[in-house]
Amino acid sequence: MSMSRRQVLLIGGLGVLGAGGAMLPTGSVEAKSASRISSNEMPKPFQAAFVQAPVLQPYATGTDAADGRPVNYYKLTERAAMANILPRLGTPILGYNGLFPGPTISLEQGTKAVLRIRNQLPPEHALDGHALSTSTHLHGSASKPQFDGYASDITHPGFYKDYHYPNFQPARTLWYHDHGVHFTALNAYSGLAAQYHLHDPVERQLLPQGNFDVALTISDAMFAADGSLGYDDNSHSGLWGDVILVNGRPWPVMKVQKRVYRFRILNCSISRSLRPTLSTGDPVVVVGTDGGLVPVTQSVVSWRHGGAERYEVLVDFRKYKAGQRIELRNLSNKNNVDYDFTNKIMAFDVTDEPVDTSDPTWNRIPTTLANSEAMSLLPGQSVKTRKFRVKRNDSTNMWTINDDSWQDVIASGYKKVIADPDLNSVEIWEIENKSSGWFHPLHIHLVDFQILSRNGAPPLAHERGPKDVVYVGEGETVRLLMKFTPNTGLYMMHCHNLPHEDHDMMAQFRVGLKETDWDADDPMTAAKAAWDDDPS
Q1: Which CATH number fits the domain 208-362, given the four candidates 3.60.10.10, 1.20.1250.20, 2.60.40.420, 3.40.50.2000?
Q2: What is the CATH code of the structural domain delimited by 373-511?
Q3: 447, 274 in Cβ contact below 8 A?
Q4: Model's pTM, two decimal places?
């Protein structure tokens, strides 16, 4: 189903125009508001208390008979619910276990997970009537194709699917979200997203843990007069809300001790990019990127943060006075739409609570961390260089990669690919964005990659670690180095500005197989959803 800009709808069934009805400009534009709630109901910055999503506990544990590895078993139910986002008005959402965002999953490297996703959603989305079939992607996991959230491998309401995650990779911040074909933007915007943390001994020893290892899931939203979520993707260009949410709360305030904190920052906005910075002008220390720890920590005053990217940063609150407030602000980037308060994200209030100095991470700012396979690759190992161009087709109003789209994949019977690397081969992928007016956070499934260059220059300081999303800004060309391991089969490559993905900037590549080979892990046939007859 396609929606024009004139068919603007809301989850509550009301109409609203975002961004003053404007198309995405070539530069950053400012407007007063996009929401239609009254000034009395509009949330104000730094009024809400900070909360973290609950950690999901396994309902059972066991051992994999094939390799003796421990296994955690989890259940999550996708369902409609009401969220307390605004001060007084309730907001209808779609959430994992009815939460916005969903519960965090946290486990150790080497412990496998089987995640049963039960689709108990209504038959249709209240916004536009599309069927609420879902596909769950664990973003950052080297999952087999049939468990990777392949967009067209959907689970209908009333069914469930068991997703198997190997969790052999080094420690990292992953996240899981809906990836249902052509409706990922609406479903994720409605609440189907959450963090997933993988720990290992190196990360456990070097970086803060427990209460000082803090997940920040940042998104933006607009609201109708009745408190329901608004939606306007500006003719599939993108949605820019006027309310910044952190873990589902508008501009919250977190109380912090005078010590070092670790923040796992996920940009969960379906379109907006961020440029976070501290109000004091002090730098933060980047210790992790999408694929885990960086080899050498990087001190940055601000950083460009596209949708789906994860950055782990250390903030040292020791230098501040008790009672002092430090804001996490947003400087924004080119090609965003900004409003009165989208320049603020959240605030930290420093307390005089005693600090446990027996914890060695309370004052530790490491300089070296851990290398990784992706960051150890050398350009000379590459056996092939492939070039891709991301652009908008003006005649069809569709977004494409080398003029290919997911509609082409469907029309081919899920056979058409834009690349066919061999298993364990190393390649360089060059991605070019010559289009003016747009940026594209591009996600490549399965692999971690190293950014070799940006417009011929070295990568930016904050992105010098293993990545799975690369920000391709207006007029930029990036070169990426990656190894296609450990699985064979079909995987997706797409823009993580989700209205772009849905219309239709997504293609696929095939690892280690020819088109005519039998594929035991075919994502459309290998692990089908089953009828859910569990009365609970």
Answers
A1: 2.60.40.420
A2: 2.60.40.420
A3: no
A4: 0.95
